[in-house]
């Protein structure tokens, strides 16, 4: 059903989230009934990796239905904070996990889930701590507030082996600046999902915005 995915060097990972598309849509689903048409629009626009955040009660059902009904989608769970959320998200069909930060307990749970994951960091020390544990692909969050492209450029010298997915405060105007950096594999954002378009179920507009995002690199 799904096309082969780019592989990752991370321990236990079968593919790299950073290699799927230049932009990973960060999706907050309020109504599970919107999940499938929304995901279909994103995939049709060229954004197959879809991060459904665990911020709403509808999120588990959204992950489940996207996984079951949208060929080509690589659905993951974001805002993963606890081991229980890891277990529940993978059981629902999440194929990757994203967290805003990382603790030893959460890292152990994500490793045990045996799916690719992007633990969040915002400092060199946090990145080094994960690097010591064999993790080389990370989320940089909150990207704009934590220093943006200037900070990531500074990390590229001492930590060239680390690649990031910056998320937080990124839009279509700034995404190309991040994507031009050698240590950035993709960016996360939600600008292709404007609230008014989702509320109106204007999936054609979502698809158009997704296509524009997919063409950023």
Automatic annotation (TrEMBL):
**What is the protein name stated in its UniProt record?**
2-dehydro-3-deoxy-phosphogluconate aldolase
Family to which this protein belongs: Belongs to the KHG/KDPG aldolase family.
Give the transmembrane ranges.
none
Documented EC number(s): 4.1.2.14
Which top EC class is named for this enzyme in its record? lyase
- Output the PANTHER family linked to this UniProt entry: 2-DEHYDRO-3-DEOXY-6-PHOSPHOGALACTONATE ALDOLASE-RELATED, 2-KETO-3-DEOXY-6-PHOSPHOGLUCONATE ALDOLASE
> Which keywords appear in this protein's UniProt record, sorted alphabetically?
Carbohydrate metabolism, Lyase, Schiff base
Q: Which organism is it from?
A: Streptomyces prasinosporus
The lineage's top-level taxon is Bacteria
> What reaction does this catalyse?
2-dehydro-3-deoxy-6-phospho-D-gluconate = D-glyceraldehyde 3-phosphate + pyruvate
| Pfam families referenced in this protein's UniProt entry, alphabetically | Aldolase (PF01081)
- So, what pathway does this thing act in? Carbohydrate acid metabolism; 2-dehydro-3-deoxy-D-gluconate degradation; D-glyceraldehyde 3-phosphate and pyruvate from 2-dehydro-3-deoxy-D-gluconate: step 2/2
Subunit comment for this entry?
Answer: Homotrimer.
Its gene name is eda_1
Q: Which SUPFAM superfamilies match?
A: Aldolase (SSF51569)
